[in-house]
């Protein structure tokens, strides 16, 4: 059977029957979007692929729970984000928290003039990947996924205040990273002249 | 508000953002899905096996606790068989006409699932001979033959009932309906009871060698002396090799636990007693007879190997013969066939009673016909000893050695 022409609903039904071609079609339909999410939550591409793989396994294992009241894409997106957060929780350690605290000292106060929003997605993802895991998770959840701080606090087992401060610091750190790169670019251009 | 705008803006930025997967990702996911499917199947298998086991155990326990009326009806049966047949038929609460000991026990042992180690954990075998279920550690190892039993028919005279030929003919005769509800199977009862009480026996014959380490000190005024002079009288530590032959008899007492005993014969002939200021040389011979008592548990590995670690005690009676050559100044001029010049030969005998503790392990390879080939490393330590030798000594012994042998189960 040709599954490329199937609707999402039909595809889900076939996937529930463990039909491998249907699963492959579902993979093909959503992998591009899902990898985008994973890249934002991961430190690098390898980690993103790990999360992506886990997310797909989870999706295929939990298709029974998809109640078809909403679009399949949104459900898959939520599963992917949750898988990424679970990966973050697994990796979260004291060492990472210390790194986060140390990194704070290096952040120079900068005016948030919306320069982050002016970046292309690809460039911004590279900057986000340089954030400490905690900042990265809070930034993604708040700025991209649209979660509120109380919801983030619940998701990451942190207080609402911590979520807010982490988000602010994440923005500042992103801004610093962008500034550093632009200044380096200017230096490189001046040398080129 | 700025943040809200930023949120919206970033959401739009990433709305269409995505990336192509690396090659092989789908294959990796597909493989993992296959693995998960296998794991799920395995889990289902385990759950169903566990459920089946619970049901079997539950049913057995439930059935065991069912009142069968054995006691009351047994008396009735005795009365019934002694007297001539009457129209009165005892009624079993299970629906038959008579509840007897055989029915009672058979109902308690409806079926037995046995584990085959060679197939573990993927197979459970139905045991067609449940009579040895309490005694066999390894089903199929020595299965009892199925029991073909004559049937005692009730309702006839006692003398007739014991006429086996007649009974067999009666059973074959199709016109006579099989008296399933009014039969007793006395031999079956006996066999069933025996199977519960009598377990397996194993006899082994071993030969081995041990390194015996002995330390002895003289007792002076009842106190153990370790002074240099006393050490000179008795060599402090000796090591000797001894030979041993053992006949072992083991009995399975509960599932995989075995109680062992037997007869031990040991032979030790020392090389040379270390030369001291008093001793020139000497020779000590021991001959010992012992009775061990051990407790072991067997562990199966695959279908052929098993290891039975065991601990125990052994009592030994030892006969010791000593030949010592002691330096005697002034004897150098005496020529004797028995004594070296300058040394006098003294011979002595002593009787010893020793109790030692040992730890051993029988590493067994099962052969055909209930035979086993066994290697048995062993370590043994002196616990208690008594000797009648003229010069009282304390002695401590330890043996480290091993035997090889064959065993046969019955």
- Intertermini distance of chain B: 91 Å
- Helix proportion of chain B: 25-40%
Classification by helices and strands of chain B: alpha+beta
| Extended strand count of chain A | 0
- Described by its quaternary structure, the protein is heterodimer
Structural class of chain A: mainly alpha
State the shape of chain A: globular
Query: Which strands sit side by side, in order, in the main sheet of chain B?
Result: 5-7-8-9-11-12-13-14
Alpha plus pi helix count of chain B? 8
Main beta sheet strand tally, sense and closure of chain B: 8 strands, antiparallel, barrel
Residue fraction in strands of chain A: under 5%
Query: Which overall shape of chain B is indicated by the principal axes computed on the Cα atoms?
Result: elongated
Description:
The complex is a heterodimer of chains A (193) and B (410). Chain A is 74% helix and 0% strand. Chain A has 193 residues and is mainly α. In chain A, helix 1 crosses helix 2 and helix 2 packs across helix 4. The longest helix of chain A is centred in the last third of the chain and has 33 residues. The mean pLDDT of chain A is 82. Chain B is an alpha+beta fold and 410 residues long. Chain B is 26% helix and 40% strand. Chain B is built from eight helices and 14 strands. Chain B has an eight-stranded antiparallel barrel. A two-stranded antiparallel sheet of chain B has the order 1-2. Chain B has a two-stranded antiparallel ribbon with strand order 3-4. About 30% of the residues of chain B have low confidence.
């Amino acid at each position: 059977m040709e599954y490329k022409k199937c609707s999402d609903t039909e595809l889900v039904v076939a996937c529930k029957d463990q039909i491998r071609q249907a699963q492959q079609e579902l993979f093909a339909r959503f992998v591009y979007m899902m990898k985008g999410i994973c890249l934002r939550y991961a430190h690098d591409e390898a980690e993103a692929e790990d999360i992506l793989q886990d997310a797909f396994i989870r999706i295929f294992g939990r298709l029974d729970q998809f109640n078809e009241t909403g679009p399949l894409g949104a459900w898959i997106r939520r599963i992917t984000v949750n898988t990424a957060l679970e990966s973050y929780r697994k990796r979260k350690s004291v060492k990472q928290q210390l790194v986060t605290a140390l990194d704070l000292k290096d952040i120079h106060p900068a005016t948030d003039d919306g320069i982050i929003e002016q970046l292309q997605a690809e460039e911004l993802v590279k900057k986000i990947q340089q954030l400490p895991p905690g900042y990265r998770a809070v930034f993604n959840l708040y700025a991209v996924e649209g979660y509120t701080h109380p919801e983030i606090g619940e998701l990451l087992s942190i207080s609402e205040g911590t979520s807010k401060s982490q988000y602010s610091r994440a923005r500042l750190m992103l801004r610093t990273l962008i500034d550093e790169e632009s200044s380096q670019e200017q230096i490189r251009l001046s040398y080129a002249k | 508000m700025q943040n809200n705008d930023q949120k919206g803006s970033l959401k739009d930025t990433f709305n269409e953002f995505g990336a192509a997967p690396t090659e092989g990702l789908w294959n990796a996911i597909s493989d993992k899905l296959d693995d998960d499917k296998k794991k799920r199947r395995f889990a289902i298998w385990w759950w169903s096996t566990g459920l089946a086991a619970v049901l079997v155990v539950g049913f057995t326990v439930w059935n065991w606790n069912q009142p069968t009326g054995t006691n009351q009806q047994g008396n009735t049966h005795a009365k019934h068989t002694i007297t001539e047949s009457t129209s009165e038929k005892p009624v079993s609460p299970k629906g038959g006409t008579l509840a007897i000991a055989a029915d009672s026990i058979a109902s308690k042992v409806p079926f037995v699932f046995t584990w085959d180690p060679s197939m573990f954990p993927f197979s459970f075998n139905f045991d067609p001979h449940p009579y040895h279920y309490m005694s066999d550690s390894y089903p199929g190892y020595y299965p009892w033959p199925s029991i073909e039993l004559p049937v005692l028919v009730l309702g006839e005279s006692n003398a007739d009932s014991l006429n086996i030929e007649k009974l067999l003919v009666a059973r074959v005769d199709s016109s006579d309906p099989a008296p399933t509800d009014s039969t007793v199977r006395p031999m079956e009862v006996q066999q069933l009871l025996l199977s519960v009480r009598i377990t397996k026996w194993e006899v082994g014959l071993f030969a081995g060698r041990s390194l015996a380490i002995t330390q002895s000190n003289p007792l002076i005024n009842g106190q153990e002396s370790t002074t240099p002079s006393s050490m000179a009288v008795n060599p402090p530590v000796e090591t000797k090799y001894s030979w041993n032959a053992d006949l072992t008899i083991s009995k399975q007492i509960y599932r995989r636990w075995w109680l062992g005993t037997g007869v031990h014969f040991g032979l030790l002939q020392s090389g040379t007693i270390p030369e001291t200021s008093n001793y020139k040389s000497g020779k000590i011979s021991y001959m010992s007879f012992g009775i061990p008592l051990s407790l072991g548990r067997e562990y199966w590995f695959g279908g052929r190997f098993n290891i039975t670690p065991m601990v125990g005690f052994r009592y030994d009676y030892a006969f010791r013969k000593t030949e010592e050559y002691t330096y005697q100044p002034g004897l150098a001029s005496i020529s004797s066939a028995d004594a070296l010049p300058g040394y006098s030969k003294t011979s002595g005998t002593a009787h010893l009673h020793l109790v030692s503790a040992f730890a051993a392990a029988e590493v067994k390879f099962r052969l055909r016909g209930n035979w086993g080939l066994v290697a048995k490393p062993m370590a043994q330590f002196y616990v208690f000893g008594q000797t009648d030798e003229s010069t009282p000594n304390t002695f401590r012994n330890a043996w480290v050695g091993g035997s090889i042998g064959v065993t046969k189960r019955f």
